[in-house]
Amino acid sequence: MSWTSQAENLVATGKVTSSAIFGLDGVKWGGTEGFEPIGTEIQYILNALDDEQTAVLLPKVGVTIGGKKYTYLRRDPGHSIIAKSKLGGCVISKTSKAIVIGVFKNPISVEQCVCEVERLVDYLISMQL
Hints:
By secondary structure, this protein is an alpha+beta fold. The chain has helices at 3-12, 39-50, 52-55, 58-61, 110-126; strands at 18-23, 28-31, 63-65, 68-76, 80-85, 88-94, 98-105. It has a seven-stranded antiparallel beta sheet, with helices on both faces. The protein is globular.
């Protein structure tokens, strides 16, 4: 299993536009071509998932991924963050060892992207990843 192929498989569903998988140390495991979130963006996301002091900033500052800013919608502490923009949105979900990021563009809905990202996350969790 290649991490890039897992990210590409998400895009192949038609419900995710671009995707990446990062370890909890912030190191990129794989992703779709041209989708390059930077280290500070990933670190902020990792902190916001688990740290309440960082999470309270989400409604004010939102989420930035790959240089694109998204408005915070909701957070499941320790598990996921969902955010939206006028043109689409992003879904970030965590396993015990990684985060999966899925970005989508309209007309794809938040719910459609969430479903596909969570399907991959559930698979990774079942593989103890």
